[in-house]
Amino acid sequence: MSNEMNLLNDEQMIQFITNGYLVLHNDLPDELHRSVMNQIDFVLQNEGNPGNNILPRVPDIQKFFETPVTKGALTSVLGPDYYMHPHRHMHFNQPGNGKPGGGDWHKDGFWSSMRSHRPWWVMMFYYTQDITEDMGPTAIMPGSQYNETFPNQSTLLPTGKAGTIALVHFDLWHKASLNTSIIDRYMLKFQFVRLSEPKSPSWNHTKAEADFPPDASDAHLNLWNDVWSWLKGEGGKEKTPGGELAEVPALIEALSRENEVIRSQAADKLGLIGKAAAAAVPKLAELIGDSSENAALNAVYALGHIGDSGTKALLKEVAEGSRLTAQRAAYGLQASGKDAIPGLIQLLAHQDENRRALAAFMLGMLGSAASSAVPSLIVALNDASEWVRRNGVEALGMIAEPADETVPALVRTLEEAVARESAGKENVSTDSYVDNQEYITNKIAYTAALSLLRIGKHGDADLVIDGLVSGLQSQDRYARAYAFEALTAIRSARAVDVLIKQYRAARWCPDTHKSSTF
User: Fold this and answer.
1) What range does the domain containing 383 cover?
2) Which residue from 12, 298, 461, 504 puts its CA 20 to 30 A from 411's CA?
3) What is the residue-wise DSSP string for 84-98?
4) pTM over 0.85
């Protein structure tokens, strides 16, 4: 395949930020899609669903993800060093197989203190056949990626010719729809991961400002602009005021209106005005606990954009609010940028493990701007709570520098996590989130190996390789996969030797199955 890429344009990026999805199309030969379909059908009928092994079992699938369309879209959203995650699945939807209405609406599982509004992860739903609504394509709920609670809004069934792709934000609400046709429906779900924070736009960027829809009832203008700015590599840039100071009193009054759309839009407009809207901080802080999640989200992002007084209100809510309002406030601190860092470092010493974990996670979301927090995060790796340690490990991988501090800490953490696993010791935490991903059997090793995949190449190669060799021995399949890929990124002679040894033991023969003779 060539290195040509069809990068997304500004309009497509705006759609992805606001709606959480794009429908794309791979113009590939029908013969290739039919061949892959036949291979998949054979596997399903004779061996069952291969799950994560679908790619080595049907290697031609790789061709779908090496086209200018897919490479261009993934590069645009995740940057040029994106990673194809080892979790992938073949979704097989048979006619009439399921309850009326299809599957249950859900977001895929996550393992951090909170979800990320900024796109660190995406999924691709790939259709190997012509897909129509009656065949039960995966239903998506546009714009729902920022909602923790089910928003119950309009839905979409992406359709099109073979090669149709739905590129979706990892946190978009989705479900299987009912197949009312007489045709088996196939869909390949692959996940992709961003490995580093953006330094500049990675798409075909020409607009100075994003023209987001300003008057939509579910608009999140401050949130959307935060994601847009971050993707442009301007995460710490001072926000430009976008409203009129004279509007502030009326907007503050509107924050108390019974209509949730009015409250939500008023909060959004106050955030666009910025520091000049500081008088609205008390009422915006009250809105963090609003029954309308949209209004609450707009309030926290507005507080983050207003400046010092808004940031202080958000930090207070993280420290003293309910679990729900603390998490909402943490999203607003993302909008505060570097001004939130001293307060977040202080929160790493909070008596409640969930507040410490939120602080660690948000420091990671602030990326390289939070390098001053690295010593405190390294201390947090010894926290009594596994939940805090996991979020600290992830944060170090996102902050990256200084690598001479972050990388050794991550190597040590990975080695210790695998050693505890080998000794049969279990990590214990009172936080229920820790236990909600049974498929991740060593959550510290998993996260440490992912962080080393992100930044290990910036550290001492031999030290990192020692840690990754340990990671290859983990019982957690994803920790092993991340360690494997991190060695590939290092590519030193020693790293290659380790990889070759691993390849020889792990080589998969896609032609060997229960029906083959040899």
Assistant:
1) 351-518
2) 504
3) EEEEEEEEEE-TT-S
4) yes
